[in-house]
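In this section we walk through a basic example: taking a raw amino acid sequence and producing a predicted 3D structure, encoded as discrete structure tokens. The instruction is simple. Fold the sequence below.
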Amino acid sequence: MNYLAHAHLSFHDSGVLVGNMISDHVKGKKKFDYPNPIQQGITLHRIIDTYTDGHPATNEAKEFFRPHYRLYSGAFVDVIYDHFLALDEEEFPGSRLFDFSQEVYAGLSDYKQWLPERFGAMLPSMIMHNWLYNYRTMGGIEKSLQGVAYRAAYIHESHTAFLLFEKHYQPLRECYRQFWADAKPYTWKQYEAIKDTFSAR
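The resulting token sequence is shown next.
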């Protein structure tokens, strides 16, 4: 999953939020350089990613992109899941998504000294353009897909991915629904287990 889902699945726990958001920039045992709450978030992020990659609905969603993008199909699906989450009225009714996005940015800003250099450099743009909120728009998703292509070593365009997203919008939304129904309760259980493990140390 992408930034919005990882933020939402931090369950309003500020330290876990930071770890969950920066985990892709923290390799291997580097996580032990961080305070325990951030370590918990990094651990949770890695569990979420493994679960997402192996879920049957995710595998189904990847098939729409695999012929063109092969191993990068999962990265595009991660972004698309955030689009459907952003539009999910059960998770973000009314103006809740906008309010949530501001809470996340404030939480990350409170931990600036712990943000990896690349993430810290990216955060002002995330805030200025309100990435988390704009996942709900087609324009926001198009830019996010472009970001996947920009960061990838072996793909050089995302326009095809956006066209595939538009073409298969409804079946991709159904993949999200099937995935999210399992992922949220699973992640809550993992969150509780991580908290128990760290408190027992």
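Looking at the output, two observations stand out. The radius of gyration is 16 Å. The chain has one domain: 3-20+36-194. In the next section we compare this with other chains.
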